[in-house]
Design goal:
By secondary structure, the chain is of the alpha/beta class. The chain is built from 10 helices and 19 strands. The protein has a 10-stranded mixed beta sheet, with helices on both faces. A 7-stranded mixed β-barrel has the order 1-2-8-6-4-3-9. α8 packs across α9. The chain is globular and about 60 Å long. The model has no long low-confidence stretch (mean pLDDT about 95).
Length: about 350
């Protein structure tokens, strides 16, 4: 079935449908990962977005039962150069097109994803609309230009869990605030021996402290951090009461809670191959990233020490405050998909917990 993508600047791409029939709109972004499409599709941070995969063949190892990052996919649509119809992998349980159709995800293939990526890099992330219908380009362009911007939407409330749940263990008790949690973060904590309680983004500070946590992790999530005003207030009340680790959106919210500012990147950082320099260790690590906003370094209070910096564009990738037992990272140390270079950051966080106890 034919499919079309139209961007808010009027650019039209035509290809073939490889997912659900229908129409989907969102902010069109690109991800440079060569593998990990299952984790990307189920990463709640992509809520409100249409994801373009730059690697030319997607779906070649199918969909398995182990690599889901959330209870359901939250992205609006998926774009590929070629979608593999005959996967080959011992863990595969389903073909990618079958999964996309079952989960009502509109997807398309057969377009020049390199040209689309170059356009996004030149003009920035744009609103777009994918359709398998027969509407004219002029009508589609009118529709997409009426859609809200990513900064006008409260997406955290869409992806967070409704009720807390706990993974039992004998180690320290870690509370993870679900702002759009990738389950790999909670798994990483649990595998180290921690008891992990995942709580909704709207849980207030007294209720979190009533759980008697040894540490707090603020997860990744979608959208503009400045829209999460209630969560920012909660974080400001918790900092200093217990060790805190921020990851991705959680990192940005910590900056806002301490009086800093954030801003939108032109086309974001999304992929499994982003170089970051650890300024304290004087080493460069390859990292997994997925964010469209960044912390304004000039706005940070002086008590925060910048610890990590993006090698490509010099943006802030991490900061800390040892007096507050606060550690914050813009990228994904759990890295699924991606390299495991940065797992040492979990050890740094546990050192804060041990020091506190």
């Amino acid at each position: 079935m034919p499919a079309k993508l139209i961007l808010e600047d009027g650019t039209l791409f035509e290809g073939q449908s490889c997912g659900a029939d229908g129409e989907a709109w969102g902010e069109v972004v690109f991800n440079t990962s060569m593998t990990g499409y299952q984790e990307i599709i189920t990463d709640p941070s992509y809520c409100g977005q249409i994801v373009t995969m730059t690697f030319p063949l997607i779906g070649n190892y199918g969909i398995n039962d182990e690599d889901f990052e959330s209870r359901s996919p939250f992205l609006r649509g998926l774009i590929m150069r070629e979608c593999c119809k005959i996967p080959s992998n011992w863990r595969s349980r389903m073909r990618l097109p079958q999964y996309l159709k079952q989960n009502n995800i509109v997807a398309m293939e057969g377009i020049d994803t390199r040209a689309l990526t170059r356009l996004i890099r030149e003009k920035g992330a744009m609103r777009g609309l994918i359709t398998t219908g027969e509407k004219a380009a002029a009508e589609l362009l009118f529709l997409v230009r009426q859609k809200p911007l990513i900064s006008d939407m409260d997406l955290v409330s869409t992806v967070t869990i409704p009720e807390p749940y706990t993974w039992e263990n004998d180690g320290p008790h870690i509370v993870v605030m679900d702002l759009g949690l990738k389950l790999s973060i909670a798994r990483s904590m649990h595998k180290t021996g921690c008891r992990v309680t995942v709580v909704p983004a709207n849980m207030e500070a007294p209720d979190i402290m009533a759980l008697k946590p040894d540490g707090l992790v603020l997860s990744n999530g979608p959208g503009d951090p400045q829209t999460a005003t209630a969560t920012i207030k909660t974080i400001s009340q918790l900092i200093g009461q217990l060790p805190v680790l921020g990851i991705c959106l959680g990192h940005q919210l910590i900056a806002l809670a301490l009086g800093g500012k954030t801003y939108k990147l032109k086309f974001g950082h999304r992929g499994a191959n982003h170089p970051v320099k650890d300024l304290l260790r004087n080493k460069i690590y390859i990292t997994s990233q997925n964010h469209g906003f960044s912390v304004d370094e000039d706005s940070l209070p002086p008590e925060l020490i910048v610890t990590h910096r993006n090698v490509n564009d010099e943006t802030v990738e991490g900061f800390q405050n040892t007096k507050l037992n606060l550690l914050s990272i813009q990228y994904h140390p759990e890295a699924f998909p991606g390299p495991t270079d940065s797992h040492y950051l979990f050890d740094d966080f546990f050192a804060y917990i041990s020091q506190e106890s």
